[in-house]
Amino acid sequence: MIIQARRRLCRVASFTIAAITLATAGCGQPGTQRFFLTPPEIQPTPAGPRAAAPRYVRVSRDLITPGFIAATGFEQDHVTGETHAFGWINSTSLDFVQNEVLSSSAPSESRAGLQFLDEDALRGVAVDPDTMMTREPVLAKSTGAYPGSNESRDYHDYEELTAELEALAAGSPALARLENAGPSVASRNLWYMKAGARLDAANGGPRTLLIANMHGDETAGRELMIYLLRDLLGGYNRDERITRIMNGSQVFVMPSMNPDGFEDRQRWNGDYKDLNRSFPDFTDDPNDTINGRPPEVAAVMKLHDRYAFANSLNFHGGTVCFNMPWDTKPNRQSSEKFGDDAYMNSLARAYTSSNRTMRDNHGGTFDHGVTHGYEWYEVDGGMQDWSIHYRDTTHATIELSYAKTVSAGNLETVWRENREAILDFLDRSTFGVHLNVVDDASGATLASRVEVTTSNAPRATGFRSGLVHRMTPAGTWQVTVRAAGYVPVTLQVTASSFNGSLQTVRLARAS
Length: 511
Prior knowledge:
There is one protein chain. By secondary structure, the protein is of the alpha+beta class. The protein folds into three domains: about 10-135, no CATH class; about 160-430, Zn peptidases (Aminopeptidase); about 430-505, Immunoglobulin-like (Sandwich), CATH 2.60.40.1120. The chain has 14 helices and 25 strands. The chain has helices spanning about 65-70, 95-100, 110, 120, 160-170, 220-235, 240-250, 260-265, 295-305, 340-355, 355-360, 375, 385-390, 410-430; strands at about 10, 20-25, 30-35, 55-60, 75-80, 85-90, 115, 125-130, 135, 175-185, 190-195, 205-210, 250-255, 310-315, 320-325, 370, 395-400, 430-440, 450-455, 460-465, 465-470, 475-485, 490-495, 495, 505. The strands form six sheets. It has an eight-stranded mixed beta sheet, sandwiched between helices. A four-stranded antiparallel beta sheet has the order 5-6-4-7. Strands 18, 21, 24 and 25 form a four-stranded mixed beta sheet that branches. The chain is globular, with a radius of gyration of 24 Å.
């Protein structure tokens, strides 16, 4: 399918037909016939392992009641509108839908309020759920497919991704180390690359984590992480900013958190679990343990336990925006917002300033590409809020493309739109307050938890030891350092990019 390089709305379907036509040149011109909508009757669910697969639906917002959610397990997609939303219902709830929603005795508005969709056909384009009109992504023309086209920059399957990462690590042994966070459901490794010039230093600088492809059918981030690693490793001692990033931080890159979902061309992991709804949620699932979690979620939780991350991004697809916390609770009042909201907002504005496609996404809950998650749509059990609340990471979500599944030929375009923004984020993630908190009597770095507050934000950030990297905007800040059994100390510190040096802070034991 060829997609034009401009954005606009084209009528593609009504609810009475199953096939639609996508215009390749203009609205109403002949195009490629695709099947988006299935008839309103429930289609039989295939037998075998696939019987548990959720079904993709279009639902009127009036129908999305607590009772409907409880009965169907409805999980809303981030493709939403004013009157309708896309989402998934459990296959096991089809009897309820047939009997209560689509039966002849159900109210007509209920019957009209739910349609089953062909999720495979929808992944490659962006469709407005209210109008069922396609919004053409701002991407170059391409006939590239996912995966398996013959273009020079195609998607890597699992074996190819493994080989690529192994080759990158072998080619730059002083700068890169390939590690495995753990297995997927199908025993594929969750590879991540640890990159930096201080890999073996006791204090290698602040750690930044980038994760992509946690939804298997949101694919662009998987390849962008490879492009990024090539730039970081190839640009060291050649590019000033890349050299500063590599000298001043450790960058952790996980191209695919959901390798099974990618191979199966589906959102879910191999057990049909949504990984971005499966983390501990401090509002309704405060059990911060790996017990009972999908193996991919458990692996990422353990990765956070092994390494404390200062800043983090995770990459998705389906719209174009910088999503700020919180996802699971409101952000309308200042008291409700994330304690580092101002700092996060500065990161968001910097990111969108170099991504015109993202910046042009304006209206509704989007402010020139920036949104607070809950006000967009609520997500419970997400990785972003978990890592902030439970692991003191400053974490945001990037939506890279209007199409969830970007054709291989358009990956270069998405990379060009995001390369500068990602490198700038990594550069800013070296910047802040860098301290060595020691016992005043012995001079030894504290081995227990240290808590730091800075005058630029109300947030108190915890660190596992006296080695502190508190990311802040540029400026001179009042910094208060606390540790159990010690007298707090407040001092003035000027933020800087980490260069290997730490400012010593001495804490005296409380009498």
